[in-house]
Design goal:
The chain has a single domain, classed as TonB-dependent receptor, beta-barrel domain (Maltoporin, Chain A, Beta Barrel), CATH 2.40.170. Helices cover 8% and strands 53% of the residues. It is mainly β. The two termini are 29 Å apart.
Length: 741
């Protein structure tokens, strides 16, 4: 019966997508089952694609083609010595990482701002910079669209990815302006030699036992939970298949997911100083159905050149207004000296904006800002908007001398934002266009056999914004700016590396900040672009590949970013907020990172970040206060032990300090989340994989926080919250069964 319910819910969501989207998914399923039944050729050696350690755990290593750019060191490939963290998502010891958010939060100085469970909207913050100050690439395609400038991480399934590279600092070799926070580069699955396939079924839920703390219902959409019930039931199917014969390769991968998305949270009823009306409530409009697929075709022209085409698709239908579709298509031709790519991306959003009172609370950072104070059916606006973009990238690398290399690149593109009011009887449509031309030049000088390295780069960008339908009263916006960066590293001994980086970063205003006129947010076409001066200095002690240690390293780094012309929406009337340049801000901090891998049986990752983010604007109530939604102390510890095909993992995530409002009145509650995971992959059942994970094992839903009003202090029972003040679920249980061929 449960299987029938699963298929019914998945198919109901499947039918809600367009014919083209469903065809792409069906093709992926067909190729998957074809490859599973395709006989292995005699010259395909499993040892090339799968290796087995002493404990029987199957490890799928990266497959790189000799002579291509991916074979080079990160320093030579990207022409930067900015600190870099690389996560291989095919690593069998990453069983505790369920989503891309979990993966990213296991790298230093990254905090994901969540708005619910693991499948709800979430946004990235790196080194205290918000989502609009951090660039996210998918196979070198920028995902930060021109309208809002940020990326919802819940729209990127980690299952379709192979590797994530996190650059803390500017990166010259990307087709976008320098972002002060850094760059997250997502790489889709690679095609290994031979014939391979895998299939997984996954599930999970949030169990809850009522402790008797009940109160009045907040509205018809919120109710107190009953005894011993389950919420947020999640069902997921994932599959991947690939064929690589000779010089031609084909990979298809896909997933279907359905979830109720509900969870129990502690509601203070909008009265943080009154404990008598607090109660437990249920998030009851968070259901979703997701479908994703990846189709990749690879052809080697010769030993050093390749032609590759990728189609990445993701679609979501949710109970709350949000993202409908995201697509990213790319065709690239590259060899060791030249890279040429044509890209196309598109996504759409359906938004419903309730009465102003709800929006007002959302902007004030109230702990219960998501409580619906008005029915959605009374929304003043319901719009359907989409952003589509296409671009061309041309870049290359040249060796001038034995120790001097240069890298150059050109990129151009156009984005179109289209919006339509679905409630209007007349066809009210709006169009905005953003044109971008950019170039970058970088050099890399290696001295004394690479013990001393110097990098320098200069990027120029021209951005033109052109309003069209529905924006006749707006002016155009054209901008040209230069972004330089430099760095140097010194390696006096084989185990020590010291480096310094400095960059001047710029961020043009988004189209919403310039021309937005939806709901309460009003644009300002005279905005100046943001800029920041950033630097970092640090050292890495690395004893990797010595004795039995595969990895043994410790990194300490200091960083600072000074922002000018910061853009924020400032309330100027009872119902409107206007985008304005508010002045300066300064973010400085310290990063400490440690990594250990011992004899393929034990691993330990730890990271700690201290942040001091200050508002340096001229607005008196906020000057000198901490920038909101940035925890002062952020730490994670992650470890695993594997033997006899069984892997046990543990992760601790801790944040403390900081505030969720600009006036520094509402503190971020101290939060510690513990996660346990187990993987069973015995040698006598080659290819079989079973995972079991318990998230938030202490079932932390409430905590006691200290509130200050003047000279008086109050203790208040509140919800376990994320950095934006959004409550998180309690205990979560996840499991999966699958096999690999």
């Amino acid at each position: 019966m449960n299987i029938l319910i699963f298929h019914k819910k998945v198919l109901s969501g499947f039918c809600s997508f367009s014919f083209k989207e469903n065809c792409l998914f069906i093709v992926s399923v067909f190729v998957f089952f074809t490859t599973l039944n395709y006989p292995n050729s005699g010259n395909c050696d499993d040892s090339e694609s799968n290796s087995e350690d002493e404990g029987g755990t199957i490890v799928v290593p990266e497959i790189e083609v000799e002579g291509l750019a991916s074979e080079k060191s990160d320093e030579e490939k990207y022409f930067t010595i900015a600190p870099l963290a690389t996560v291989n998502l095919r690593d069998e010891n990453n069983g505790a990482k369920v989503t891309i958010e979990d993966v990213l939060e296991s790298t230093p100085s990254i905090r994901v701002r969540r708005f619910g469970d693991s499948n709800s909207p979430s946004f990235l913050s790196m080194r205290g910079a918000d989502a609009t100050h951090t660039l996210i690439l998918l196979d070198d395609i920028p995902l930060n669209e021109a309208w809002a400038g940020l990326v919802d991480l819940s729209t990127i399934p980690s299952y379709l990815l192979d590797e994530i590279k996190v650059f803390r600092g500017s990166l010259p070799s990307v087709p976008a302006t320098y972002y002060p926070g850094g760059v997250v580069s997502l790489e889709t699955r690679k095609i290994p030699p031979g014939i391979h396939g895998e299939f997984f079924l996954k599930g999970g839920f949030f169990p809850f036992k009522d402790n008797g703390a009940k109160g009045e219902e907040a509205s018809q959409d919120w109710k107190s939970p009953s005894e011993n019930i389950r919420f947020g039931a999640m069902r997921k199917m994932e599959f991947t298949s690939s064929i690589m014969k000779g010089s031609l390769g084909l990979l298809t991968s896909g997933l279907v997911e359905n979830s109720d998305g509900d969870f129990v949270y502690f509601n203070d009823n909008g009265t943080p100083y009154n404990n008598s009306d607090d109660f437990f409530a249920i998030r009851s409009n968070n259901s979703h159905t997701k479908i994703g697929s990846l189709l990749s075709l690879l052809y080697f022209l010769d030993e050093k050149s390749e032609l590759k085409g990728n189609v990445f698709f993701f679609g979501s239908k949710s109970g709350v207004p949000g993202l409908d579709i995201i697509e990213a298509k790319k065709t690239s031709l590259r060899n060791e000296k030249l890279n040429f790519a044509i890209s196309y991306s598109k996504y759409g959003v359906t938004e419903e904006l309730p009465e102003f009172k709800t929006i007002f609370y959302l902007k004030q950072g109230m702990s219960n800002w998501f409580d619906p104070l008005g029915e959605v059916s009374n929304a003043r606006h319901r719009t359907k908007s989409s952003t589509s973009g296409s671009g061309i990238i041309l870049s290359g690398t040249r060796l001038l001398r034995e120790n001097l290399k240069i890298q150059w690149g050109f990129n151009g593109g156009v984005e179109n934002w289209h919006s339509k009011n679905l409630y209007s009887k007349e066809s009210v449509e709006q169009n905005l266009y953003r044109f971008q031309l950019g170039s970058n030049f970088a050099n890399l000088i290696l001295i004394a056999g690479g013990k001393f390295a110097i990098t320098g780069s200069l990027r120029s960008d021209f951005i033109g914004d052109k309003p069209a339908d529905g924006f006749s009263d707006k002016i155009h916006s054209n901008r040209f700016f230069l972004s330089p960066s430099a760095g140097m590293s010194l390696k006096p001994w084989w185990w020590l590396n010291i480096s310094f980086n400095v960059s001047w970063n710029t961020r043009p205003p988004t189209l919403m900040e310039l021309f937005g006129d939806q709901g309460t947010l009003v644009g300002n076409a005279s905005l100046k672009h943001e800029s920041s001066l950033g630097w970092d200095f640090g050292a890495v002690v690395d004893f990797s590949k010595k004795l039995l240690f595969q990895t043994l390293s410790l990194e300490l780094r200091f960083f600072e970013s000074i922002y000018t012309n910061l853009i924020a929406f400032i309330q100027n009337s009872q119902r409107t907020m206007v985008a304005q340049n508010i002045g300066k801000a300064k973010i400085k901090g310290v990063e400490l990172v440690g990594r250990i891998r011992f004899a393929k049986t034990f691993g330990l990752n730890l990271g700690y970040t201290f942040l001091d983010p200050r508002d340096e604007s001229k607005i008196e109530p906020y000057h000198g206060k901490m920038l909101p939604n940035r925890p002062r102390n952020d730490m994670f510890i992650e470890t695993f032990v594997t033997k006899w095909g069984i892997t046990a993992g543990y992760k601790m995530d801790f944040i403390e300090g900081g505030f969720i409002d600009r006036a520094s009145l509402r503190p971020i509650v101290l939060r510690t989340i513990h996660t346990l995971s187990f993987r069973f992959s015995p040698g006598f059942l080659k290819g079989f994989v079973a995972d079991f994970e318990i998230w938030n094992i202490s079932n932390s839903i409430t905590t006691t926080k200290l509130l200050k009003v003047g000279e008086e202090s109050y203790e208040e029972k509140g919800a376990i919250m994320d950095v934006d003040g959004y409550p998180l679920p309690g205990l979560g249980i996840y499991f999966s069964l699958g096999f690999r061929k």
